[in-house]
Design goal:
4 helices; about 20% strand; Histidine-containing Protein, Chain: A; elongated; alpha+beta; about 120 residues
């Protein structure tokens, strides 16, 4: 085999490939970050959703420091204690408004009794 035959074979082996529609869709799928993995500054963060929800709640609710925010996929799991049922409703609504949240679980929250 001479040098020109080898060069021609290499050119064909490394030619750019064309993606069909399905392959293009899959490549775009892996090029974006899922909403539940977006961090506070738009970077990839495995716990990004819980961090974004926690940051948003602390900025908008006084008693949010008594809450622990975790995530299970796109579900936000809240635990801790609050002063009133009204605060619980407010926190659920705020948490649901964060991009990427599908559901909010509150079974771990204790609410102080109203007098």
């Amino acid at each position: 085999m001479d040098g020109s035959t080898t060069a021609t074979a290499l050119k064909r082996a490394y030619a750019p490939c064309q993606l069909d529609g399905n392959q293009l869709f899959r490549s775009q799928l892996f090029a974006t970050i899922p909403p539940e993995r977006i961090g506070l500054k738009g970077e990839f963060d495995y716990y990004g959703l819980s961090k974004r929800v926690s940051h948003y709640l602390r900025a908008n609710v006084d008693d949010a420091r008594y809450l622990k925010v975790r995530q299970r996929g796109r579900v936000v799991v809240l635990s801790g204690h609050l002063g009133s049922p009204y605060q619980l409703r407010q926190i659920i609504d705020l948490a649901r408004s964060v991009h990427g949240v599908d559901e909010v679980e509150t079974s771990g929250i204790a609410v102080a009794e109203a007098c």
